[in-house]
Design a protein that fits this description.
461 residues, alpha/beta, Rossmann fold, Helicase, Ruva Protein, domain 3, 3 domains, five-stranded parallel beta sheet, 16 strands, 46% helix
């Protein structure tokens, strides 16, 4: 295979690659590791395709040099697994049994290149330099795209054009195609689950299951069973075997919101599940292999949570591969107009930002939004129902009729009452909630049972 060493305008640090060697022959592993380390690269070695795949799922590598003939999982099977998961590393297949057919098959499956043992030093140098140039150009392309898109106002369903949001979008771009753990933290209502779902949609596991759970809703005594499952008879009420969240999400992405609500004893078992990729159901003696991408969130500052003793330090360090801090809405007031426009149009009002008077907009921009984006969205939904005119005035804003004096309340919907034209308001709420009576009741600020009674009464009239 004819190759040439290309001169590329890169610094020494830009030429350095993180390389994974996958080969069942210890002599080959040692040779490749020594040769690549001498070239200044960071090198890890494993002895099987399965170990190699696990390494790629937990760490980021630029290049994988993989042997063709290995037990259990050969080079082509390994290559298929890597490409099937859309992992970003380039793969080079190495073998002592070269053939045109296997070379063509490897290239068809997406291998970067194909070389034969014994690997010559100059060929290895040329190959690695070509990969380094490619990775450098890819990084430059990403940076260019980030520069071009630095004024974007939306990323998926995330809205905002402020500098803080541009920084978030840049980080989300870098997470594309990766499966590493992510820790998201920020105040309630800042959109932690929305960011988690966005990360999942842009990941290699986007076609696999996504499960979101709020740890604050899990009863402490049942937390282990909820996460890891249980077998029949393991405790009172365990009438049959049950899958836990980890087993149910196997192959997909699990989002654990409000992580600090989990007891420390369960956090220790969570750490073990992450590190060993194995779980044990309550009451069982055997372990189950699981492959789960974990995204966690908390409304606490993680460092403070560790100091308070509500987050295990070892778990924090294990999860904190990438951390994302979401800014409160009061720290990105320049996004309020965009958010208002988006939510008004989302709820069927074409006027968008024009739905608000100048005075109302000024009041909304000045408000501190303790409930953040969630509070703003709920306010828009309520205004669409209760506003009698085509434009929202300051006096239509419940936030400034009551909460300004008594202190803001993110859950002010429960203080609202139905107005005189009850049937009209109920139908409007149902339309916005797309027929969902529970959501409509929440918008109206009444109990679902009350809404059911009123609907029954309306239907009888």
């Amino acid at each position: 295979m004819a190759t040439s060493v290309l001169e590329v305008p890169m610094s020494f640090m830009e030429k350095m690659l993180k390389i994974l060697v996958v080969d069942d022959d210890p002599l080959v592993r040692e040779f490749l590791q020594d040769a690549l380390c001498q070239l200044g690269h960071e090198v890890a070695v494993v002895q099987s395709g399965i170990e190699g795949l696990n390494a790629l799922l937990t760490q980021e590598f630029d290049l994988v040099i993989c042997d063709m003939m290995m037990p259990k999982m050969d080079g082509l099977e390994f290559l298929k697994a890597v490409k099937g998961r859309k992992l970003s590393a380039d793969v080079v297949i190495v073998t002592g049994f070269a053939s045109i057919e296997s070379a063509v098959e490897a290239l068809k499956l997406g291998a970067y290149d194909y070389i034969q043992k014994p690997v010559r030093h100059e060929l290895l140098l040329s190959l690695v330099n070509r990969v380094a140039e490619k990775r450098y150009l890819l990084r430059e392309n990403i940076l260019l795209k980030e520069t071009i898109s630095r004024y974007r106002w939306q990323y998926g369903d995330i809205i905002g054009s402020s500098q803080k949001m541009q920084s978030l979008y840049s980080l989300l771009e870098r997470l594309k195609g990766r499966t590493i753990p992510v820790l998201i933290y920020g105040e309630s209502g800042t959109g932690k689950e929305l960011v988690a779902r966005t990360i999942w949609k842009e990941s290699p596991r986007c076609n696999d299951i996504f499960i979101a759970v709020n740890c604050g809703t899990i009863v402490d005594t049942l937390a282990e069973s909820e996460l890891f499952g249980h077998v029949q008879g393991s405790f009172t009420g365990a009438y049959r075997d049950k899958k836990g969240l980890f087993e149910a999400t196997n192959g997909g992405t699990l989002f654990l919101d409000e992580l600090t609500e989990l007891p420390l004893s369960i956090q220790a078992k969570l750490l073990r599940a992450i590190e060993q990729k194995k779980i044990r159901k309550v009451g069982d003696t055997k372990e189950i292999d699981v492959d789960v991408r974990l995204i966690v969130a908390t409304n606490q500052d993680p460092d403070m949570a560790v100091e308070k003793g509500i987050l295990r330090k070892d778990l924090y360090y294990r999860l904190n591969v990438v951390s994302i801090k979401l800014p409160p809405l009061r720290e990105r007031r320049e996004d309020i107009d965009l958010l208002l426009d988006y939510f008004v149009k989302k709820n069927g009002i074409d006027a968008g930002i024009e739905f608000f008077s100048k005075e109302a907009l000024e009041a909304l921009r000045a408000y501190d939004w303790p409930g953040n984006v969630r509070e703003l969205e709920h306010l828009v939904q309520r205004l669409i129902i209760f506003c009698d005119s085509n434009k929202v005035r300051v006096e239509d804003l419940p936030l400034f009729k009551k909460e300004t004096c008594e202190g803001p309340n993110a859950n002010s919907s429960t203080d609202l009452a139905l107005k005189e034209n009850e049937a009209k308001l109920i139908q409007k709420a149902l339309k916005i909630a797309q027929g969902n009576k529970l959501k409509a009741a929440k918008l109206l600020g009444i109990n679902p049972s009350t809404l059911y009674r009123k609907l029954k009464k309306i239907s009888q009239e």
